[in-house]
Design a protein that fits this description.
CATH topology of chain A: UDP-N-acetylmuramoyl-L-alanine:D-glutamate ligase
Strand order of the largest sheet of chain A: 2-1-3-4-5-6-7-8-9
Order of helices and strands of chain A: HEHEHEHEHEHHEEEHHHHE
CATH superfamily of chain A: Ribokinase
Radius of gyration of chain A: 17 Å
Distance between the termini of chain A: 19 Å
Oligomer: homotrimer
Mean pLDDT of chain A: 95
Low-confidence stretches of chain A: none
Number of helices of chain A: 11
Shape of chain A: globular
Structural class of chain A: alpha/beta
Number of domains of chain A: 1
Number of strands of chain A: 9
Largest sheet of chain A: 9 strands, mixed
Strand content of chain A: 5-15%
Largest interface: A-B, 33 and 33 residues
CATH class of chain A: Alpha Beta
Amino acid sequence: MNKTNTELHNEILDAVYDAWTALQQQQPLVHIMTNAVASNYVANILLAANASPAMIDNPFEAESFTRIAGAVSLNLGTPTSEQVQAMLIAAETANTIQKPWVLDPVGYGAILHWRSEVTDQLMAFQPTIVRGNASEIGTLAGKQVTGKGVGTTLDSSEVYQQAQSLLNHCQCVAISGVSDFIVSNDYPVIQVNGGSELQPRVTATGCALGALIAAYSAVTTPVIAATAAHLHFAIAGKLAAATTQSLGSFNVTFIDQIHQLNLEVLREHADFQLL
Amino acid sequence: MNKTNTELHNEILDAVYDAWTALQQQQPLVHIMTNAVASNYVANILLAANASPAMIDNPFEAESFTRIAGAVSLNLGTPTSEQVQAMLIAAETANTIQKPWVLDPVGYGAILHWRSEVTDQLMAFQPTIVRGNASEIGTLAGKQVTGKGVGTTLDSSEVYQQAQSLLNHCQCVAISGVSDFIVSNDYPVIQVNGGSELQPRVTATGCALGALIAAYSAVTTPVIAATAAHLHFAIAGKLAAATTQSLGSFNVTFIDQIHQLNLEVLREHADFQLL
Amino acid sequence: MNKTNTELHNEILDAVYDAWTALQQQQPLVHIMTNAVASNYVANILLAANASPAMIDNPFEAESFTRIAGAVSLNLGTPTSEQVQAMLIAAETANTIQKPWVLDPVGYGAILHWRSEVTDQLMAFQPTIVRGNASEIGTLAGKQVTGKGVGTTLDSSEVYQQAQSLLNHCQCVAISGVSDFIVSNDYPVIQVNGGSELQPRVTATGCALGALIAAYSAVTTPVIAATAAHLHFAIAGKLAAATTQSLGSFNVTFIDQIHQLNLEVLREHADFQLL
């Protein structure tokens, strides 16, 4: 007989505890190709979470590094021709050897043709998890959206139903917004609450979240990896905003909170529901 | 009959209030191509000021993104061949469709030939505003200067007269230094005071200022955009330095102050004069 | 007759005092080519130490800028084809005109072939100082090592003897780890103690250390430059960790401490011994 949502909620929460603990113990090597704006911040967030980030984004080393990494994170924020070559090699390699990899289709949409075409090529290599904002995921799922540059003009709650269609191409879709939505075939849609309205005012938080999902995906299932990373961010954002409302200080405190998360903090602050 | 400097001062200050208010309301999309050192910092400064930065610096998307952006900011700090192609496309597009764009000719001078030649090509597309340090602007204006790498060996007050000659190529020239000078045909030279001696000890503050000028240029005239951005920085720098004299903390507090600026703070601390 | 280790210790310490003082006075221009993760952080660390960093990493300006810089710092963290061309030009130029230059062979080893081959080419231009973690230096010295991506799987104390063999290719080898080891023909191996276990949890600290060694090498001998930079970092790390154990705050405080170092702090906290 089917489990109740309460049983599923507890099952997910226990799996998130295990994922966080495994991340601390294994400190998985994450092969990251991200944008120029995000690279330093992404590396610091992953180190704060106790993962081992390595930004290797040239085509000459992409295959060999994907083979030794625990997971791969590809982000289309500021692609260059050489980086795109590297991404295609890493995605194909990850797909071939069944290494978990996360695709963050930054700016996917009608205005930014080149990266959107590259994203379509990358989708063919079956990302384990696709994560993005509502405009990006909505457009990927075939919705007509007018994105504002690399930001979003949609609310995440408007697109999680359409996102179901992407499960033909990946195992999990994570949509970030005021609330976050984790879409998979394993569980009902998981809505993660928390964070802070200051989070979008710090650049590259979404990019860092994508890389953290990849880090968790090296130690657990795709849907738990996405949920654990989103909870990690939502809790750190909520606690940082409770400390300060000034943007520079918030950014510092947010990294403090990513670093200080533990099972007690998770138990007290993890806020999600099944839809 | 001509307005007195007091009348002009009040006129400028009122326009700066309106520009800051419009920036908060419109959160203009700014198309930014900047250097590897600056990109994260520039994005965070613009987000703190409530603009919408997007770093799109590939030649395949430069034209389409320039068309939807509110303004464009081009910075020559660490050019690559591909980024230079993108800059030339963005500058030509911006000039064609009369989109405001800011040129920051980092390192312009005798030593760095390549970027200086690229800068000369970009100047042909009539930047709306040219901003830089005294060595860069002085050399652009035909002065013989021996710059120290990408730093400056001149005081900004030494070059604002020569800068007048650049008004044949752009509508406004902004020279940053201990005091800043805004040169245009609309007003007498505007000298902006404030800031802190710690500001040049934080990398990419000048680059971020150029991008903030671009953000303001999406909502007001070139000379008011330059004045508003310089005042925004000068006030934040002065208030941050009043809080701490330690460099790491200063940088965090500076972003706090960029974020916290409002009409009251502007009214109390805006310090500029007409020459 | 030979000097005692106590005499040598005092001689080194006096030379470090002089090097720090010279750095404050001369603020040497450092020509830096580093990775995308590190560039902002490296520039801020060097500015905090009072050097003048300039990231010029294109092949068209590499030679002319190397000629005017006080020293050159090359870091293989995220090489691109164009940046590698620039590094080879800068290294050859620095070697030809006897300009001090530092090589940081990030990720050198069996997995990352391309950069390792580039590093071998760069080694032919006789770097003044080679600095890296134990896995990188050990592999360069011919030891069989299985590095973990760009991290290390060795303790620095395991490789400083092998590092002696690298003195045929450079004048000084600096190995960073829990303790740091400075290897040269001028002195017995210098072991630098201090720092904090939080330091490796902040990205690009090693990259910044390499660039700081280059800054010091513009004003003193290679072995004193390496020792001064390692002491500067070890003291700042120890004092920052005494202030906070939260990672985001640690990073801010670390820059504060790099900035606030002076002869008194050096005298009180410099901790090194001769082996």
